[in-house]
Design a protein that fits this description.
heterotetramer, A: about 100 residues, alpha/beta, Transcription Regulator spoIIAA, five-stranded mixed β-sheet, 5 strands, globular, B: alpha+beta, five-stranded antiparallel β-sheet, 3 helices, binds adenosine-5'-diphosphate
Chain lengths: ~100, ~140, ~140, ~100
């Protein structure tokens, strides 16, 4: 299982554009957490997490996203998930996380 | 005709992906469609992740995953001797106020047709998950 | 540090792919490069195929695949109780005049660093295959 | 594991163009054998087996190809493998089958 992350600060939109590619599970979730933490450390801003190339996520990955959302609340920043695949959309729906994290679905 | 496959795996994060891959290949063999294979993949991962995360045993200790495949269903058992827990303390997650943890069992129950958990404090846990073929 | 994973699988063609997938995921975890992972995939498949093709046991009987992973190597054991064979009858294939069968063990020996086969007629066979990491 | 086969008779070249896509192992080798047999049943001619989308083959698949080669000898027809991936090229090389089956490598 592998996870690749591309992280980019969008000056125009004043937000992080972060793309997760591959699989997030118990062995790769720490990497996702580190990347999100590093971004916020670098600059407090909203995060757009692009999921079009994410094949798999489970509760460990969702937990990291929820945790990040919590940390961001302090600064009134938000994290937003865009373009999840069908399997991931299903998981977001089951957990009702889509209502909080995916304003566009 | 029922086939039984068994895996014995050390309780380490890096092997959860191997189990996920193996079980999803089995589910695919058994004739489940893509969506059901994905459900089974996530459910078995959640169960293995719980062993690896919450197990109090040595990380070298192995847990067992058994898959029973028949024409109408797949049964997956994940059995550990990693200390167990007090199931009466379990709280369903409240999704208006999501927390970092506590989603695993909730997700398993949402994705599988039948789920039975048996845990004995000081001993271990077994979780039985069933998914039926061709169920609407 | 050595990790041991074990699989128990019914001797049917449809499950050989599951073993191949699981073992290649392990080899990948263990740090083997793409070419070595492919070698291991083929070797373990050949060993499982031999059990399924030549085994005289009931197709429901299971064989065992054990993988021992350490920092410097992976050891894969494929153990069956499917009747064994007389190894003194084994003939290396003659590739100027290739035949439909008889390539399996030859391929395993070409792809793995060490191969030991032990077969007892009337009992079963075990094959031990070793591949080292970072070996030129 | 899955195997898809596309079979096509090329009138111009007077030969079969057969493409194997996926994996050939003990569970899919019978399908390859059936397709090759069916082609020769339909028309005795040379076979070009296109392997650019074949990801995996082992001795069961190689055995089917050798068997087909044997059946074709009677009619002085040949089977030829083209565009194998690196892993498959290695196997053909180890078994020396490339010398007989892959005139172009
Ligand atoms: N196999 C297990 N061994 C020990 N404790 C477990 C096991 N599975 C679940 N638990 C306990 O049940 C709780 C709820 O599990 P779960 O719903 O999967 O959420 P999470 O794993 O995120 O905490 C865990 O926090 C843990 O205390
Ligand atoms: N696990 C096994 N159980 C019984 N017989 C076996 C086993 N493995 C190998 N053999 C015997 O050894 C012979 C050579 O095997 P191999 O080189 O793999 O070629 P093939 O399987 O194509 O015949 C087989 O034909 C079979 O008689």
């Amino acid at each position: 299982m592998s996870l690749k992350i591309q992280s980019n600060f969008n000056d125009e939109g004043n937000q992080w554009e972060i793309k997760a590619i591959g699989d997030v599970d118990i062995s790769t979730a720490p990497k996702l957490r580190d990347c999100l933490d590093a971004a916020l450390q670098d600059k407090k801003a909203n995060i757009v997490l692009h999921l079009e190339e994410l094949n798999y996520i489970d509760s460990t990955g969702l937990g990291v996203i929820i945790g990040t959302m919590g940390k961001m609340k302090e600064y009134e920043n938000q994290i937003m998930l865009v373009n999840p695949k069908e399997n991931i959309k299903k998981l977001l729906n089951i957990t009702s996380l889509d209502r909080i994290l995916c304003p566009k679905i | 005709m029922t086939d039984i496959l068994k895996f014995s795996i050390p309780g380490k994060p890096e092997y959860v992906g191997t189990v996920r891959l193996a079980v999803s290949s089995l589910a695919n063999c058994a004739g489940f469609d893509i969506e059901a294979v994905e459900d089974i993949k996530v459910a078995v991962s959640e169960a293995c992740t719980n062993v690896v995360c919450h197990g109090k045993s040595n990380r070298d200790d192995c847990y067992e995953v058994a898959c029973e495949i028949s024409e109408e269903r797949i049964i997956i058992l994940v059995i550990d001797r990693a200390g167990g827990y007090d199931m009466s303390q379990y709280q369903r997650p409240v999704m208006d106020n999501p927390k970092e943890g506590g989603l695993g069992i909730f997700i398993i129950k949402a994705l599988m047709d039948e789920v039975d958990i048996f845990s004995e404090l000081g001993m271990g846990t077994s979780i039985k998950m069933v998914k039926y073929l061709n169920r609407l």
